[in-house]
Design brief:
It contains one helix and no strands. The chain is mainly alpha-helical. Helices cover about 90% and strands about 0% of the residues. It has one domain (about 1-43).
């Protein structure tokens, strides 16, 4: 009972970390594109 709960918790935290890393990656790409554009075209 306890082991299955711990396993489920580990799976949940892993999924949470994976999702947040995906979001971070997307945000980083957006910021990177914005920086590139702002360097190419002076605002």
């Amino acid at each position: 009972m306890l082991t299955s709960w711990i396993f489920g918790y580990e799976k949940f935290t892993f999924k949470l970390l994976w999702e947040s890393s995906k979001v971070k990656k997307q945000m980083f790409q957006k910021i990177w594109c914005y920086l590139k554009l702002s360097y190419i075209i002076p605002v």
